[in-house]
Amino acid sequence: MSTMSTAVLLASMFALGFGVTSYKGQAQARGWAVGEWFCNDTSWINILGFISLVTAAVFIFIWLDWITAIVAILSGVFGAFFLTNVFKSMFQFLSFLLVPLYAAAWWFLGVF
Fold it and tell me: I need a labelling partner for 108 at 20 to 30 A (CA). Which of 10, 30, 52, 67 fits?
C-alpha cells in the first residue's frame, strides 16, 4: 500500500474521530440539534470516535514520515471542521460511517 493511500485513510479516520468527539460542543455553540448519543460522553459512538482519533494519530506518526504525518493530522482537523460545518446536524448520521470505516481501515491496513 502506498504512503499516500495510508495517509488519506488515516487522515479520514482522524477527521471522523475528531468530528464525533467535538460535535457536541460545536453544535451547542451554534444552536444545532444534538442527538441523545452525542449528549452522553460515554456513549458508544463517542467512545469509538475517541478510539479512532487516538489510534489514527498514533499510527500516523508510526507509519508515516514526519512531514506527511503533520499534513495528515492538519488535514484531519480541517476535514472534521469542514464536514461538521457542511452537514451541520446531519453530521450525526454521517458519523455512523465511522463504524464500518474503522473496521475496514484496520482490515485494509492489515491489522486484522
Answer: 67
User: CA distances (Å), 32 to each of 29, 59, 84, in order?
Assistant: 8, 33, 11
Give helix 44-63 / helix 3-30 axis angle, nearest 10°.
140
- Mean pLDDT by runs of 10 across the 112 residues of the chain is 81 90 91 88 88 90 91 93 91 80 73 54
Looking up cell 504525518, which residue turns up? 69
- Compute how many other C-beta atoms are within 10 angstroms of the C-beta atom of residue 33: 10
Prediction pTM value: 0.84
**Which pLDDT score is estimated for 45?**
87
CA distance 47 to 106: 17
Task: Please give the C-alpha separations between residue 90 and each of 4, 56, 77, 84, in angstroms, as whole numbers.
Answer: 29, 24, 19, 8
What sign does the dihedral 13-17-20-23 (CA atoms) show?
A: negative
